[in-house]
Amino acid sequence: MASFNANIEEALPALWRFALSLTGNRAEADDLVQDCVERALTRRMLFIPGRPIRPWLMKIMVNIHRNNRRSTRQTVDDEALGGLLDPLAHARMEDRMHLADTFNALRTLPDEQREALLAVVVGGLDYQDAARTLDIPIGTLMSRLHRARAKLKEQQGSGATIVSIAGGSS
Amino acid sequence: MTQNEANTIGTDLLHAYVDNQLDRKDRTRVETHLRDNPEAAADVAAWQRQNESMRELFADAPSQEGIAAARAALSAPDKAGMVSLSPHPAWRMAAAVTLFIAGAALGFGLRPTVLPSQEMPLLQLAINDAFSAHRVYAADPHRPVELRANEEELLVNWLSRRIGTPLAAPNLSGQGYDLVGGRLLSGDDGPAALFMYEGAAGDRVTVFVSTDRIEEFASFRFEARDDGLQAAHWTEDELQFAVVGPVDRDTIRAMAIAVYEQII
Prior knowledge:
The structure holds 2 protein chains of 2 kinds. Chain A is an all-alpha fold. Chain A contains 9 helices and no strands. Chain A is globular and about 50 Å long. Residues 159-170 of chain A have low confidence and may be disordered. Chain B contains 9 helices and 9 strands.
């Protein structure tokens, strides 16, 4: 029992970063982590002791996030971007531009491609766990990763996303 | 490396290289391949830059507040199978219901100390439905199911359509139970699906999936009945799940975990 909670606690920073990457907003990341932890506590008996807890938690988080998204279809707004980028104020201007560019490019990806990319890159999951977390076959994960990266490359090459920062478009 | 070997480097392997998921041998293979394939090398370099940007973008120190709130939830006293306070409305209701594990002393898993007006009876009804469905159909020698497992695809499509959400028949073969088939039932105010399984000894286990609305706080719980039936019940978003069978608690839990992992 104690180790279940301790393991969740240990995973909190990683969990929070993953939540930030999914929501793009610090306040929403806080809420998502909180919801995830609370749900995890009620699901304690559905966890197999000894298994790695991070993929298990991330799966819960992805499901909550998907449901939230279904109920309130969020659009990308300047506020979300501000909430994310504020803490980057110390970064050099070029870096901030570049990161804003990355952020916006990510936002333009279809949800399922973005989730695949974030689970692997930010969540740090191996492909097996990422596929399980997203509830998709590993082949689907790979093709989503591929399409996501191709699209990001295309966009970042064009610089078109810079415009969308100013416009705050979705 | 021969040309032939180099050709076996597929896109998946390139992604795995970028994501640092290869052992040393494969890494070397990919690196050799990249030296001779500038186009692939350019892709890999671009993907690596993307990864770095993404990590930097979200490398931010976690919000102190967010982490502290989550820690508080974790260290609240004795919340085994219980829900804790939260700022969200659904959870505020949940907090009104203090559940505690009574365990063996009370003869079943969780018992409410406070009965809110409507929610607990609904939950109790749902669990009773699952027990009743099990009793009626698992014991039926003639027609325990409407559609047999050999028509699994038909069964699953049909149930999914009636339930209104994509369902798959959970696989319990890891627990020694094979799918017999399933049927459609009606819950209190919506359709429900019943999947039936049989063990080597001919004993039957059912998985009850219902669309009846229960608030999220219906957390995982066990219930046992005098006739030797054991149930595990939980909700997952819009659906409720119950696994029922004449087995012990550890077995029912293992089956619940199998269903949970396959369904969400």
